[in-house]
């Protein structure tokens, strides 16, 4: 599918003039589409006075160059990857996000630099033959140097994040990460549960930086909830690589909450797209809770709720708050499955330890003895290791 559009502002807002579908057994190596479609699009460009043609797939540098020559004039040809990178560039609100987007853009541009220097082809005769090629090589070297510098900065960010996670894991509060297709309502859910002031708008990729907040439940239990960048079908590999420092938050989670916009007509395809990206991140083995969001906007909410119960799925509306208590209970139950059973005697002078057990674990019974408090509870594995000496005292 491709779109012909007009740019109506400096922030890349477009008016779609026409959509054209193409059925291809194989892509044309020169122009991606056949010569007949090229002629059809060229006629439509003149008829609608279109400024940009967007292809819903990634084009090779040669295909981009040949299509722009075929369409003529000042018509810009943009592929799916370039469009997504443009959107990411607009959404980057922090230094870290800007670094990651810049890296992805440069790696995308590197093999396409020939398109930026086509004006030098006019100098290919006489004394200056080959000057265009030399300029391209100079430009590529500059770009490779910039890419190397960006990778070093991002690696520094990655190390900083790792240190932060190590400090966070010292406090045994389980981490739950929200994952899902872009615009599924993850940031709205985080705001509703934690009172965080995270940007939540009805647009693609509103959130590029992970945000982690503490969720306090009515029963006193708590967990950390982390919002992550939204996924999309055919997510460019350059973006997956560039955002790996950010996406590592997912791999360190105790539980993934897959938030789905169940009111979207392509919800099934979006679920598959998210599962594919999680597989690429080697996060498929992390326990997951499926959550269907925006139930209030669905055509038949009652039918969806019945289907959700059969499939062990939680239905919510992050916007209205419907189903959030059930969601928190489901998270707590899933976290319990990842905890271990302990019996420990907590000395009276370790009151903060007992308080932590009640906060992050699930206490079944407490008995007050002469030399401390006997606790029987489910606690996170890494916290259970801290209780090992006290468990030995309890068993002796």
From TrEMBL:
Cofactor section: Mg(2+)
Pfam name, any one: GTP-bdg_N
The residues that hold GTP are 180-187, 205-209, 227-230, 293-296, 317-319
Q: Name one GO cellular component term.
A: cytoplasm
Keyword GTP-binding on entry:
yes
Locations listed in the record:
Cytoplasm
The leader peptide range reads 1-27
Report domain Hflx-type G positions: 174-339
Question: Sorted alphabetically, which InterPro entries does this protein's record hold?
Answer: G_HFLX_dom (IPR030394), GTP-bd (IPR006073), GTP-bd_M (IPR032305), GTPase_HflX (IPR016496), GTPase_HflX_N (IPR025121), GTPase_HflX_N_sf (IPR042108), HflX_C (IPR045498), P-loop_NTPase (IPR027417)
- Please state the protein's primary subcellular location: cytoplasm
Q: Where Mg(2+) is bound, by residue? A: 187, 207
This protein is called what? Answer: GTPase -like
């Amino acid at each position: 599918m491709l779109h012909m559009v007009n740019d109506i502002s400096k922030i890349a807002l477009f008016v779609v003039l026409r959509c054209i579908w193409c059925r291809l057994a194989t892509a044309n190596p020169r122009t991606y589409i056949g010569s007949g479609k090229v002629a059809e699009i060229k006629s439509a460009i003149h008829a609608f006075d279109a400024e940009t043609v967007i292809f819903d797939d990634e084009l090779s540098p040669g295909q981009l160059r040949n299509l722009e020559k075929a369409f003529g004039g000042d018509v810009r040809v943009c592929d799916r990857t370039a469009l997504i990178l443009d959107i990411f560039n607009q959404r980057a609100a922090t230094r870290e996000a800007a670094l990651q987007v810049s890296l992805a853009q440069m790696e995308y541009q590197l093999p396409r630099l020939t398109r930026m220097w086509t004006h030098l082809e006019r100098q290919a005769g006489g004394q200056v033959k080959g000057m265009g090629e030399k300029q391209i090589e100079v430009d590529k070297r500059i770009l490779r140097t910039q890419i190397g510098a960006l990778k070093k900065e991002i690696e520094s960010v990655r190390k900083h994040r790792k240190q932060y996670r190590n400090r966070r894991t010292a406090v045994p509060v389980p981490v739950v990460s929200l994952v899902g297709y872009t615009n599924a309502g993850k940031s709205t859910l985080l705001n509703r549960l934690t009172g965080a002031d995270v940007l939540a708008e009805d647009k693609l990729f509103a959130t590029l930086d992970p945000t982690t907040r503490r969720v306090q439940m009515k029963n006193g239990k708590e967990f950390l909830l982390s919002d992550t960048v939204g996924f999309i079908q055919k997510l460019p590999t350059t973006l997956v690589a560039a955002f790996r420092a950010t996406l590592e938050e997912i791999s360190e989670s105790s539980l993934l909450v897959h938030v789905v916009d169940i009111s979207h007509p392509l919800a099934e395809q979006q679920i598959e797209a998210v599962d594919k990206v999680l597989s690429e991140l080697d996060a498929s083995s992390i326990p997951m809770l499926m959550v269907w969001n925006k139930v209030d906007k669905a055509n038949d909410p009652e039918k969806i709720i019945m289907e959700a119960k059969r499939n062990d799925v939680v239905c919510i509306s992050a916007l209205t708050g419907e189903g959030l208590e059930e969601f928190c209970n489901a998270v707590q139950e899933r976290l319990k499955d990842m905890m271990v059973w302990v019996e420990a005697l907590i000395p009276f002078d370790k009151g903060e330890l007992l308080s932590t057990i009640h906060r992050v674990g699930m206490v079944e019974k407490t008995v007050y003895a002469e030399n401390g408090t006997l606790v029987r509870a489910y606690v996170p594995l890494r916290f259970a290791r801290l209780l090992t000496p006290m468990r030995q005292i309890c068993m002796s």
